[in-house]
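The aim of this short unit is practical: by the end, you should be able to scan a pair of folded records and say something sensible about each. We start with the first protein, listed as its amino acid sequence and then its structure tokens.
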Amino acid sequence: MANQTLDYLVIGAGPAGLQLGYLLKKAGRSHLILEAGPAPGMFFRTFPRHRQLISTNKKHTGTGDPELNLRMDWNSLLSDDPELLFTRYSDRYFPAADDMVRYLADFAERWDLDIAYNTRATSITRDDQGRFQVVDHKGETRTAARLIIAAGFTRANVPPIPGIETADLYGDHPTDPAEYTNKRVLILGKGNSAFETAENLIETAAVIHVAGPRSLRLAWRTHFVGHLRAVNNNFLDTYQLKSQNAILDGEIRRIERRPDGGYLVTVAFTRVDEVTKDIPYDRVIVCTGFRVDASVFGDGCRPELTINGRFPALTPAYESVNVPGLFFAGTLTQSRDFKHGTSGFIHGFRYGTRALHRIMEHRYHGAQWPGQALGTDPKELAAAVLARVNRSSALWQQFGTLADMIVLDGDGGARYLEEVPADYRDAPVSAAGPGGFFTITLDYGPDHDKIDPFDVSVARISQSDAGNAHEGHYLHPIVRHHRDGAVTAVHHVTENLENEWTSEDVHAEPLRAFFARQTASTPV
């Protein structure tokens, strides 16, 4: 295989690499996955450090529909085997990370995926024909027409604070709570890794401070699962109920390691006009996330980065904005919906990876995008939309990021395309006639993250009020008509507590009327 030009070379055998490997093998494309470690899913052998996942594993949903069940299953990969689901591996709602390790190993074995283990990519270049040349740590070179990076994060995101090199990093700090008995501990960061770490030390540490310059954001309020999850926020009680712990809203200016082994940390407090204070600690732990490692890329194929250099900058096709043929899959794609959607998590990027595969199949192999032919009768269009939004797990999990599309052909027909990146405008979307196309997404309403959903004084629209559906804040279907490069009309389907958009009067008839208006105005 070293002397063969592959269609695709994939780097990383984590969840995204395995998902893509499954799809490539099923399509019969020549490919290989390079994995630096001895087995798949190496990330989960270390992270999360305290070995409990926060990706939910809801086994009992009240339905036998496998598509609906994937709305509540945040860990399974997509495949044709109905038994190869993560829900078979654990009964826990928040399962153990070791269960994920077992699941990924079984997935790779079950599909006999083409993986070269113990093979670390050390250099990536392009030859004069535009092919990618990947050299591994043993000196072997592999050549591919397209390269997909699915390796996830391989570097800690360490802020440029003087003295931070003397602190412990989340990835290698001791996790035994006894190590912190009666100690004063500072934890940098306000994400789940920081609070997971703080939770682990509540019973032993004397004082725990969690610090960061930005406001704490709670996932149940923002609907972004990367914000602080309820399972990790017991620490908030210990702060607000005066148990010697605290959250410091401020910027860390300096970390000084003292001769006695302790630290003196300078904090500039945000709430009091950056008044600074030097605070002593026994331990400092840095929990400030991860970043992409682009050091293996040579000149001419080094991807442009974004968001403080933490992520690759991507097109709607998950392709590098400056290196054609270089794609990304998995958690590295979250710049596409940063701190809004689910592309950083398995339950999101499994669908993004499938969309990437469909893009490559269509672009390079002439495959038709999955979907169905439709007429333009408003009843038929509305029925197709409601059938999908009532069942699709992809639109549910990748809310606002993936969209179904109805492409009008200009000859009285249409094609319904499933799970296209919402802002993707290449073929087959570009084949739309003068009538344009419709996008169908599930998404939250405007300013939904600024509203306390438990505040009974906040008015909610009635679930039978189709006329004010656009004011809804909860997840609901949104249909947009695009023509000549602009959105010309938008229809909101009224939100529903059970997420069942089946009412003839409230859901179906207003949607039919919307399609009737828009198709009647379609130019010939």
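Turning to the second protein, read its sequence before its tokens, just as you did above.
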Amino acid sequence: MKLSSPRRRAVRASAVTAGIASIALLASCSVANSESQGGGEGGAADTLRVVLTQEPPTLEACDANLTSTGVVVRSTVTEPLVERNPSTGDLEPLLATEWEQTGDTEWTFTVRDDVTFQDGTPFDAEAAAYSIDRAVNGDLGCNVEGYIFGDDDLEVSATDATTLTVTTPSPDPILPLKLSFIEIVSPETSNTEFVREPIGTGPYAIGDWQAGTKLTLERNDDYWGDAPEFAAVEYQWRSEGTVRAAMITSGEADIALGLSAEDGIGDLGVSYPNNETIALRFSGQTAPLDDIRVRQAINYAIDREGIVSSLYPDGDKVAAQLIPEGIVGFNSDLEPWEYDPEQATALIEEAKADGVPVDTKILMPVRTAQFPKVSELGEVLREQLAAVGLNVELRMVDTTQHLQYQLSPFVTNEGPIAMLIQHGNQAGDAQFTVEQYMLTGGAQAEFGDPGLDELITTARTLTDDERQSAYEDVFSYERENVVALAPIAHQTVMLGLSDRVTYEPNSSTGDELRIKEVSLAG
């Protein structure tokens, strides 16, 4: 019995439009330090030129679910056993040709016998077992471990060269979907240290990485699948959207991520819905954010409709929860928090009367260039929270600094923190969101609630309609009893695409830009 992931379900989401006053929009007009790039032995025609919003902090494969890493690595340098189709939600064969559940807690995978790693090492079931063990069971602290598997270890073994068995601590109906997040690396890879430049089985191998300048991938001529069209891929990074757009319109780049219409991309801009939701995530152990009334007040203080209509009018939708429609578990009955600054002020005053130190400075870390107009959004949020009596410090940080606030173990010496996050559910199932942000001990969870934990642990074992309903209950309970987050908007994004190439973006493009799907136009 070959299994695939649950199909994504379409349900209703709402978005409304309102105004926001006095939002200053920043723009940059120069293309400083941009270079006209040819690259590759075959010249410009054989090199795909991609401009990113930021340089990847690492290409370590077990951190590939981080957007800035995965956009380069996933299914390009490295590959998983199975690959999720972002348009249908189905799992499709990749390094594994088929899979089936062979026991209550056991899954069996058949892997390909015609694949080698980019270092010449043969790929087989033993190599697949090594990568899973390294990412999930080891002591590296891989991001994929916390994001996908939490504290659960897996038993992995190779029965023969093409047969892999994976056993879970308890029944897991979506294990193949979870394994789609584990990128397979050469068994020569260290299992005691992170590797900045992984060796995988993908259509491209890492060539030259000039830190701070550019990163080049070279076509893997021994790739087991169809050969990609380009001999090389060259990545650059520019934080300003106007600069990335200008590189497309001037012919200096072929693909630019993270754009908006205001960046000047014109007819070369392609809009598409992604799976990202932006929100504030609260620290729950430090006053005043340890008081639910203050967290509720922040939700009432945010003018989501005004933010969307003024900053993101080209498709973003006001959010009521941390996943968008189409993800299994999306609760269509939840309405976005009402914009009610009077109610927010009343809640803060009530907390203050009870001795809560509501004047304490709240730090708001915001990652520079994380998505279009992120700095303007941070300033708007700071002003709206200040308007209801809260003391908020906006702090723009780079990717490395941002990760220190984002992931456990959390910063504990800087007081209360309301962190601006951008969460993408690449898997299409609510489990990957709630176990990360809501389950006690989750990689990005700063709260713990026994009732919520019970709902989450029950939901993970269910399938089909029961699974959908159980995760709807999780989001309802969190909204009523915990308020660990302030959802703001579900995003629609834009990329720039030169006339030279053809590519159809999808909901995973911002996390996983599959270069094998890009071709020359005409």
